[in-house]
Amino acid sequence: MRGILFIFGGLLVVGVLVFFIYKNYANPFKLMFYTQTVQGKSFDKVIEELSDSLNKSGLKLIRVLPLSKALKARGVEDFPNYSMVLACDVEGKKELLLKVPFLSNLIPCSLAVYDNKEGGVSITALKETLFIHQYKPQLSEEDIKLIKDTYAKLREVIKGVAK
Length: 163
Prior knowledge:
The chain is α+β, with helices and mostly antiparallel strands. It is built from seven helices and five strands, in the order ααβαβαβαββαα. The chain is 54% helix and 17% strand.
């Protein structure tokens, strides 16, 4: 009887572990993107706070591209609020991009800010880990540190705006 309970307990632990890994890591969206939802703030307020926080943190706002306004000007009337925020104008980006031009997907950082279906505003950014893994042979330790530090700071800014 104890043997059966031991096997059942082991299978239960393995099942919970597999579920946890699937729920948190097997979802391609969660692997590729970091998203925070902001409740209780308007879309415009989120853009304003995000812009201010990026500048204060040293991640320097480059530009806000109001995609929804451009689409509405072209006749798409029911498109929700959606803007791209370009930031992370960090020292060392020129050398990094000359070495690995494809990393322009990471530096400068591109944030999607949009009204979500639950009534809040979402802020979504790429995760840097898969890009670092893919291009690691071409990157120095300093390059990797620049990318990781930039994205750690970016996530802190996003979390701060989401509070």
